[in-house]
């Protein structure tokens, strides 16, 4: 009877095991229908390729048409003559086979195609790419064959370069060959891999072959013959594109993306090493997995965890065995189905031994423990300091941040009054005592730490409840209120806000008000002055030579100078004046004063601020300029700043006086200046500009040999505008570059219409050198107009030499190469003129009219003129004297040796037409 019972139980156990195994097999079959096992297998194969590294044969070299080649060659498609040169270079270097993975299906120019065909024939071992691709929209449907033109096919071998793409859009296999136009053509990989079998079907690529070891060389290095000597000797060479913009790139396992030529090289390496990968062994792996699963179901071993460990070990052994097989033979073992069987087996064993409800309970307990652990970590690692207080005033919980903030490692269990600030404790206890649902309100606590540091703590107290057991009975529970105190150290935010508030009104370097803060102070001063007999004076002063100080000594000295100026203002002049730092070199002050008492403070300013400074051993002298305005209090702060700033700007342009008060009539001048600046940009378009020409004359016979071209502006509403007025405006806003270019082109164009070939002198500005490209402007004007460059004189004033950053000599030499000449204008009125003459390529000197007196009778004037003439002869230069107005002056200058002159005696500036009439009359 016992035997019968035992055998009955055993039959039930076997039947149950069989049913479970059948269910697992069915589940795996369903997963296979959705290609899950295929994706898993490919993942495992890629992992195995990563674990195995196989060296290359060394027989293959890839020539890359890479990004560097495209950049240096600068064209795509590449000319066929370059491919001809490449073929000749490879053949001369001893290449065994040459394969071009490049589309040659269309003709280039006949000359280049002939050169390439000849190079292929000379080499005798060249193969060209053949492939099929989907037809374009213009070709309607189907596929088209791309093969080399007949001229190339007559001398080269066709090879297939297509690669099949799998369902995961990656390249796992290569072709042995393919049928093209009814002929079975071998693939590039099969040709290079020395395959001699049937040119049909495909083979798996071995991606464990080390791609880094394949020799790759840039196309330009081969063309330049800079590749390593002997690199191509008896090697198989494949030429293809790897530059991203050429889009011959394919997704692959292991290496993510590879060029088509490199995939062909890997395919060739696979065949050379007899590593054409095959997929085998899935059935054996599945059978072993089922046998292990069935044995575990029948065994009497207790404990699901041990059985799962056995299944996991079995899965690991499958992979170790698959890797070992793949390393020794070209076999990819599909183990995905067997792994899924083991995974489902583990799930069924757990459910079978624990029971479904016990399993769910186990999962719930695990989740609860994980949640409690996670909440504990969140609580303890919170960026906020969190403290929980009980009804009795003791701390029941505290986060790590709380222990750090309140400088105590033992908060839990301590009375809150002993370890926390009293204000926080009182707030928490008041919340506990209030049963109502009052809204939590964030507050700021100003706290002093034991080390004296000041900290700002933002905190909020919330009331919560928890359920606790009064006794061991499960139903004997009660509700207990707790206070949760959440704190955050906002010291940095508070200090940053205070710092921003300070920076909004003060200059951080000097401690004076900045412009925003100063405008508020000016408004307050104006308010106090209204209704009184006092006036408000706003003064701005600038350190005119601040940029030179910084340039010579450095920025640190500039900062220290500003700080020292601010200290003097605070120490000596702050009794009734509010001071501000408006910009790096401009300071401003505002004060109330009695009528006609405004200059007293400015005089004090000149004395206190104008005194020399000693900074780090350097003695610094400052040049001060003052602009100020006095108002009865009816102006706004913005207007006071604007008008005093206008006065300062004007006095900075005028070196004659250091102090200027803003007067009402200056508004009209400033308004006119702004209007002219706006209108000047429209002058060329409106055709309001024109050129006039003043003759340059031979003093001996009064004949005209040249003219000086002068720019004039006749505004349609304002009338004629003096160059002395609009040229400085154009130089300040940089528009002189466009005006100068226009004047050059117009002057040359009109000069070509005159009956005589005259020299043309045109002034150029320093701004044309610094902001524009004067060399290009002159060159373009000469080319556009066709004016003879040897008749062009460019007049340069000595102000150009002040800016030492300009490479003036280089620019002048470039323009002299055009054929132009240079005149040094206004000679004798500038700086160190004699030093410029030998340094720069001048051919003429224009002596300023200030040396031409009414009679030229004084010994001093004669000495200066004779000295200039003697010096000019020494340097091989000619002299033109400006400002000749009388015949007596002209005759006296001629007697002194002057040959050329200019002035009203010979003609005032005139239009091109009037000059032409003058020339005709003289003829």
UniProtKB/TrEMBL annotation:
Pfam families attached to this UniProt entry: CHASE2, EAL, GGDEF
Transmembrane domains' residue ranges: 14-40, 279-298, 304-324
Presence of the UniProt keyword Translocase in the record: no
Keywords on record: Membrane, Transmembrane, Transmembrane helix
Residue ranges occupied by any EAL domain in the UniProt entry: 673-923
Record-annotated GGDEF domain positions: 534-664
KW Transmembrane (keyword) present: yes
Protein name stated in the entry: Bacteriophytochrome cph2
Organism: Roseibium aggregatum
């Amino acid at each position: 009877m016992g035997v019968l019972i035992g055998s009955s139980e055993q039959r039930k156990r076997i039947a149950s095991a069989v049913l479970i195994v059948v269910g697992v097999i069915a589940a795996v079959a369903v997963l296979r229908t959705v290609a899950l096992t295929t994706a898993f297998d490919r993942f495992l194969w890629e992992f195995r390729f990563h674990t195995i590294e196989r060296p290359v044969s060394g027989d293959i070299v890839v020539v890359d048409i890479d990004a560097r080649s495209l950049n240096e060659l600068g064209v795509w498609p590449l000319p066929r003559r370059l491919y001809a040169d490449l073929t000749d270079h490879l053949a001369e270097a001893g290449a065994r086979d040459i394969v071009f993975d490049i589309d040659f299906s269309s003709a280039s120019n006949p000359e280049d195609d002939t050169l390439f065909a000849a190079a292929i024939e000379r080499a005798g071992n060249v193969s060209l790419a053949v492939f099929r691709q989907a037809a374009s929209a213009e070709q309607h449907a189907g596929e088209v064959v791309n093969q080399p033109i007949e001229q190339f096919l007559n001398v080269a071998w066709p090879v297939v370069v297509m690669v099949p793409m799998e369902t995961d859009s990656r390249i796992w296999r290569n072709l042995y060959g393919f049928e093209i136009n009814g002929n079975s053509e071998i693939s590039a990989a099969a040709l290079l891999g020395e395959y001699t079998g049937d040119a049909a079907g495909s083979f798996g690529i071995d991606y464990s072959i080390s791609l880094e070891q394949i020799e790759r060389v840039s196309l330009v290095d081969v063309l330049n013959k800079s590749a390593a000597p002997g690199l191509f000797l008896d090697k198989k060479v494949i030429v293809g594109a790897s530059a991203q913009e050429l889009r011959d790139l394919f997704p692959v396992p292991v290496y993510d993306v590879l060029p088509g030529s490199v995939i062909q090289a890997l395919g060739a390496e696979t065949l050379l090493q007899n590593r054409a990968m095959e997929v085998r062994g899935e059935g054996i792996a599945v059978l072993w997995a089922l046998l292990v699963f069935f044995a575990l179901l029948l065994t009497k071993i207790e404990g699901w965890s041990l059985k799962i460990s056995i299944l996991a070990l079995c899965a690991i052994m499958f992979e170790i065995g698959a890797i070992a097989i793949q390393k020794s033979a070209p076999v990819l073992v599909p183990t995905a189905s067997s792994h899924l069987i083991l995974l489902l087996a583990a799930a069924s064993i757990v459910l079978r031994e624990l029971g479904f409800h016990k399993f769910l309970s186990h999962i719930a307990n695990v989740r609860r423990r994980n949640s409690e652990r996670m909440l504990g970590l969140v609580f303890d690692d919170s960026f906020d300091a969190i403290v929980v207080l009980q009804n009795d005033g003791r701390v029941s919980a505290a986060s790590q941040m709380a222990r750090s903030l309140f400088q105590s490692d033992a908060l839990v269990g301590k009375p809150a009054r002993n370890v926390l600030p009293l204000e926080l404790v009182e707030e928490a206890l008041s919340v506990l005592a209030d049963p109502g649902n009052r809204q939590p309100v964030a507050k700021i606590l100003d706290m002093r730490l034991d080390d004296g540091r000041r900290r700002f703590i933002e905190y909020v107290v919330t009331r919560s409840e928890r359920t606790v057991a009064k006794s061991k009975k499960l139903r004997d529970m009660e509700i207990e209120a707790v206070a949760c105190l959440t704190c955050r150290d906002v010291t940095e935010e508070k200090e940053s806000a205070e710092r921003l508030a300070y920076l909004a009104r003060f200059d951080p370097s000097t401690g004076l008000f900045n412009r925003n803060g100063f405008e508020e102070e000016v408004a307050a001063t104006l308010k106090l002055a209204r209704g009184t007999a006092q006036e408000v004076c706003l003064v701005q002063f600038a350190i005119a030579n601040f940029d030179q100080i910084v340039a010579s000594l450095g920025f640190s000295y500039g900062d220290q100078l500003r700080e020292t100026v601010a200290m003097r203002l605070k120490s000596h002049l702050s009794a009734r004046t509010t001071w501000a730092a408006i910009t790096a070199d401009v300071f401003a002050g505002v004060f109330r004063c009695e009528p006609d008492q405004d200059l007293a403070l400015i005089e004090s300013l000149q004395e206190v601020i104008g005194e020399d400074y000693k900074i780090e051993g350097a003695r610094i002298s400052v040049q001060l300029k003052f602009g100020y305005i006095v108002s009865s209090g009816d102006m706004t702060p913005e207007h006071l700043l604007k008008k005093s700033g206008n006065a300062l700007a004007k006095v900075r342009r005028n070196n004659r006086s250091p102090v200027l008060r803003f007067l009402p009539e200056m508004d009209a001048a400033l308004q006119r200046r702004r209007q002219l600046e706006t209108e000047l940009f429209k002058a060329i378009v409106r055709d309001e500009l024109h050129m006039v020409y003043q003759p340059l004359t031979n003093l001996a016979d009064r004949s005209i040999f040249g003219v000086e071209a002068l720019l004039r502006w006749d505004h349609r509403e304002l009338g004629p505008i003096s160059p002395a007025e609009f040229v400085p405006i154009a130089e300040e806003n940089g528009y002189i570059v466009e005006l100068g270019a226009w004047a050059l082109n117009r002057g040359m164009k009109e000069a070509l219409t005159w009956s005589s070939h005259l020299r043309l002198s045109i002034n150029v500005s320093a701004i044309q050198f610094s902001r524009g490209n004067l060399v290009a402007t002159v060159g373009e004007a000469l080319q556009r107009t066709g004016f003879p460059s040897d008749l062009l004189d460019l007049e340069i004033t000595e102000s150009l030499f002040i800016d030492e950053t300009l490479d003036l000599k280089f620019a002048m030499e470039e323009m002299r190469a055009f054929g132009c000449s240079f005149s040094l204008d206004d000679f004798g009125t500038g700086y160190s003129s004699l030093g410029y003459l030998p340094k720069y390529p001048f051919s003429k000197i224009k002596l300023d009219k200030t040396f031409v007196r009414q009679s030229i009778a004084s010994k001093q004037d004669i000495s200066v003129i004779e000295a200039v003439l003697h010096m000019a002869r020494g340097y091989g230069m000619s002299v033109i004297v400006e400002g000749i107005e009388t015949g007596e002056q002209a005759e006296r200058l001629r007697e002194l040796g002057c040959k050329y002159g200019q002035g009203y005696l010979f003609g005032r500036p005139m239009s091109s037409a009037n000059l032409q009439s003058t020339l005709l009359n003289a003829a």
